[in-house]
Design brief:
2 domains, 92% helix
């Protein structure tokens, strides 16, 4: 966690110092910092992804739901980072539209799951 906090602090300091002189470069530092943080966290969380992969293998046919969970998690993380960068640069309308698009995408991924659940419930009721 100290490594993550250090990366965030250095990127914040550089962004604040550069924002007045060169806003474009400050944006690039922000995006690069977000990428570096994501890379660092993904290295640290590698064992958790391995365990989830083992669970997927053990789950057999229902392992597709773990894939769905990973896709939705990825969409959520990417959307959050993009929206934060948009808001930091004064594009709150773009951030809101990005969030809406991500929600629609997640819903479209979940529709087959909803269909399966409704089929199971309907089968139990009959």
């Amino acid at each position: 966690m100290i490594q993550i906090a250090g990366i965030a602090a250095v990127c914040l300091l550089l962004t604040v110092l550069l924002r007045k002189e060169n806003p474009t470069f400050a944006l690039l530092v922000t995006v690069a910092g977000a990428g570096l943080l994501f890379y660092t966290v993904s290295k640290l969380a590698g064992s958790a992804f391995g365990i989830l992969g083992d669970l997927k293998t053990a789950a057999g046919d229902t392992g597709a739901y773990i894939d769905l969970m990973f896709k939705i998690l990825g969409i959520s993380i990417v959307t959050q980072v993009v929206c934060d960068v948009c808001r930091d640069n004064g594009a709150s309308a773009l951030a809101s539209q990005t969030e809406t698009a991500a929600k629609i995408l997640v819903l479209s991924l979940l529709l087959p799951l909803f269909q399966t659940v409704i089929g199971i419930v309907t089968g139990l009721v009959k």
